[in-house]
Amino acid sequence: MPRLKERYASEIRERLRTELGLGNVMEVPHLVKIVLNMGVGQATQQASLLDGALADLTLITGQKPAVTRAKKSIATFKLREGNAIGAKVTLRGDRMWEFYDRLVSVAIPRIRDFRGLNPKAFDGRGNYTFGVTEQLIFPEIDYDKIDTVRGMDITIVTTARSDDEGRALLRALGFPFRREAQG
After folding, report:
1. Cβ–Cβ under 8 Å, residues 35 and 89
2. In principle, which of 91, 105, 119, 178 could form an S-S bond with 96, CB 3.0–4.6 Å?
């Protein structure tokens, strides 16, 4: 059992229940899945860039990514319907907990000039999405073996019913939110 999942079950869940004023322990928000999405727009001209993105996501998550394809043709972008233009991975269960633990304790602190992530980037239903500008923040990626620097979007899906519940859950799980200026 992942250490963060164990900590959530033993201490964080009960603390959140009292903090949010919930009557039942089953109402306490928890993580459902984490989705990593990497768009590779230049893959229409150079297919090898997509292979690099797939390899990077496989290293980072330990799971084979799914190739995302264009839904529509857009002439100005030289894009045809069905072209491979990105990759995504959905993590659930123990693998999700392990990834979240590594993300918060190792990867995010390695971001250059890091002062915390935006506490307002919730979607209205307690899910949090943020972007990472380079895959080099993950220690699994070898700096010498990358072909180009790629960014990605990371979405953390929770069972929270509101942004405040989602924020409380992620804060309890150690998520590094930016401190709001007082005064």
Report:
1. yes
2. 91
Residue 61 one-letter amino acid: T
Q: Which amino acid type is present at position 163? A: D
Is the CB of residue 126 less than 8 Å from the CB of residue 173? Answer: no
Q: Two tokens at 175?
A: 């998520």
Per-residue tokens: 3: 């250490």
Spatial strand order of the sheet with 152-158 comes to: 66-69, 84-91, 31-39, 152-158, 128-132
Q: What angle do CA 120, 123, 126 make, to 5 degrees?
A: 85
The answer to whether residues 85 and 68 touch, using CB atoms and an 8 Å cutoff, is: yes
pLDDT in tens, 125-166: 989 999 988 888 888 888 888 878 888 999 999 999 999 999
